[in-house]
């Protein structure tokens, strides 16, 4: 019988502990031994974090108890992301975790809505999204399993404290046999015959060997960048924001089941409501604003009293050209970075872990598996990149240089094709895999102000009056059902409320 693969995870934080929790819970012990090395001397980027519905899938996959996790991480629920002032000043739209309506006679709902809207006055497409209506009214409950029910047409995610989530997963992984080593790596040794990593040496002098090294060292990329020299593909020309200021503030009464992103002069500000505080940050481009001015802008636009001084973060948009090189796999910020505009940071960690487990190697590194892993990871980054660029590019703002630059810049051909097809008659390409299905693109395309010239002619098989009646029936059904839901605050308090300290 083959010996188990000796896995060394370098770095903790959200990426490291998500990886450790997954490997210790879903990969059978005879196929691996797992050790994580981290140093308390090295900080992590962790802030208040907004996630996507796939986060629930990950937690279910590894066996996390949802209510316990939420209570221990100060978490709340999330149905959508609100974008304020993005397409133009004064605008607001929500990107929901769920569809707008349901297909009618085999044709996408938004095409029927588009036909009705092009024929005459029609309620906003947001009125036909259960998730959006619930979010706007600060309501929440779990979706039902009956797929025929209107309140089954949405999903949910979480807002939580990323540092508390990492600590929770540390306890989870250690209870399943993970070995944690406290220490700072001072050198990395490579095998002369193939360049693979042989071992890492700690400040204490201890040498740690392994078969597979997972780099969760953050932006530093200690193994994948400094050792294996995997090139970094820079996407700053499309995503010019390269810095952020982050600060928590006292919780306000606006306890929303959605994240808020407000466009500012040189970037955008996030608002993430947790149970006991609110996470805030200003993501900006240093080419268009100074650090001091960015900090002032952030502090002047908080919902409550600041609980700390703004913390600066520097980054560069892009990804490694090969996140798996030799016997080193980069996960998280070591692999790449895309600003948290659509809450994709943890998703990209999760999908890398999923792919690694699906392609789990035996003793020898298999080049076929490595190539497939890199293809899957690259596809995810590229598609998320295009989706983020869309928010910046499709704007009509004239008040600041950043917005003029991003509107006039050339975009990747893959994105331009999507924009052109949507403008023609509302078409959205469908992919068999990957993040952001057609409903997400529909939300942002319409929300940013893109207007199709036509619609799918297949909608015309139905009488317009019949379609309009169906739309109105659906709108009322959603509105009435949402009114019967508990408030978000009440649901959180009953399900996973954090107990106040005595």
Write the SSE topology:
Layout: E1 5-10, H1 13-26, E2 32-38, E3 48-50, H2 54-62, H3 66-72, E4 76-78, E5 80-84, E6 92-96, H4 109-119, H5 130-136, E7 157-161, H6 162-174, E8 179-182, E9 185-190, E10 197-202, E11 207-209, E12 212-215, E13 232-234, E14 243-250, E15 258-264, E16 267-273, E17 277-284, H7 291-299, E18 311-314, E19 318-320, E20 324-325, E21 328-330, E22 336-337, H8 345-358, H9 367-393, H10 401-408, H11 413-425, H12 438-447, H13 464-483, H14 488-496
Parallel strand pairs: 1-2, 1-12, 2-8, 5-15, 12-21
Antiparallel strand pairs: 3-7, 4-7, 5-6, 9-10, 10-11, 13-19, 14-17, 14-18, 15-16, 16-17, 19-22, 20-21
Protein architecture, described:
This protein has 14 helices and 22 strands. 34% of the residues lie in helices and 21% in strands. The longest helix has 27 residues, at 367-393. It has a seven-stranded mixed sheet. Among the domains are: 5-48 and 161-233 and 317-382, 3-Layer(bba) Sandwich (FAD/NAD(P)-binding domain); 243-314, no CATH class. Helix 4 (109-119) packs across helix 13 and helix 8 packs antiparallel against helix 9. The radius of gyration is 23 Å and the shape is globular. The protein has helices at residues 13-26, 54-62, 66-72, 109-119, 130-136, 162-174, 291-299, 345-358, 367-393, 401-408, 413-425, 438-447, 464-483, 488-496; strands spanning 5-10, 32-38, 48-50, 76-78, 80-84, 92-96, 157-161, 179-182, 185-190, 197-202, 207-209, 212-215, 232-234, 243-250, 258-264, 267-273, 277-284, 311-314, 318-320, 324-325, 328-330, 336-337. The protein is α+β, with helices and mostly antiparallel strands and 502 residues long.
């Amino acid at each position: 019988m083959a010996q188990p693969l000796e896995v060394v995870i370098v770095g903790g934080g959200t990426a490291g502990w998500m990886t450790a929790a997954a490997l210790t819970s879903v990969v059978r012990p005879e196929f691996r031994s797992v050790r994580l090395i981290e140093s308390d001397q090295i900080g992590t980027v962790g802030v208040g974090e907004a996630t996507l519905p796939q986060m629930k899938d990950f937690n279910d996959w590894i066996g996390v108890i949802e209510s316990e996790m939420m209570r221990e991480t100060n978490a709340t629920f999330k149905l959508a992301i609100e974008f304020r002032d993005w397409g133009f000043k004064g605008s607001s739209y929500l990107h929901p975790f769920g569809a707008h309506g349901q297909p009618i006679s085999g044709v996408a709902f938004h095409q029927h809505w588009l036909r009705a809207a092009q024929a005459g006055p029609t309620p906003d497409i947001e009125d036909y999204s259960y998730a959006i209506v619930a979010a706007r009214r600060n309501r929440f409950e779990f979706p039902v399993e009956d797929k025929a029910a209107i309140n089954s047409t949405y999903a949910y995610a979480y807002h939580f404290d990323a540092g508390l989530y990492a600590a929770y997963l540390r306890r989870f992984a250690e209870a399943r046999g993970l070995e944690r080593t406290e220490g700072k790596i001072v050198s990395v040794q490579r095998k002369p015959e193939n360049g693979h990593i042989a071992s890492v040496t700690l400040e204490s002098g201890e040498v740690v060997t392994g078969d597979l090294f997972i780099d969760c060292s953050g932006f530093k990329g200690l193994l994948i960048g400094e050792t294996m020299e995997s090139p970094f593909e820079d996407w700053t020309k499309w995503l010019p924001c390269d810095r952020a200021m982050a600060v928590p503030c006292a919780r306000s009464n606006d306890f929303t089941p959605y994240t808020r992103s407000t466009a500012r002069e040189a970037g955008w500000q996030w608002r993430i409501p947790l149970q006991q505080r609110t996470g805030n940050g200003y993501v900006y481009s240093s080419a268009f604003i100074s650090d001091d001015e960015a900090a002032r802008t952030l502090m002047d636009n908080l919902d409550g009293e600041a609980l700390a001084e703004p913390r600066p973060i520097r980054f560069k948009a892009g990804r490694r050209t090969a996140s798996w090189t030799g016997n080193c796999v980069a996960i998280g910020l070591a692999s790449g970075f895309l600003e948290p505009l659509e809450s994709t940071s943890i998703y990209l960690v999760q999908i890398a872990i999923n792919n690694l487990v699906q392609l789990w190697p035996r003793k020898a590194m298999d080049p076929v598996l490595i190539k497939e892993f890199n293809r899957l990871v690259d596809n995810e980054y590229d598609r998320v990149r295009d989706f983020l660029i869309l928010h910046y590019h499709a704007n009509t703002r004239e008040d600041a240089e950043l917005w003029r630059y991003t509107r006039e810049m050339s975009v990747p051909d893959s994105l331009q094709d999507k924009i052109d097809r949507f403008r023609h008659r509302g078409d959205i390409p469908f992919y068999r895999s990957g993040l952001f299905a057609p409903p997400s693109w529909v939300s942002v395309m319409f929300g940013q102000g893109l207007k199709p010239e036509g619609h799918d002619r297949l909608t015309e098989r139905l009488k317009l009056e019949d379609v309009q009646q169906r739309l109105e029936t659906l709108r009322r059904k959603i509105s009435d059902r949402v009114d019967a839901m508990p408030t978000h605050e009440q649901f959180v308090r009953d399900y996973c409320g954090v107990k106040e300290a005595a």
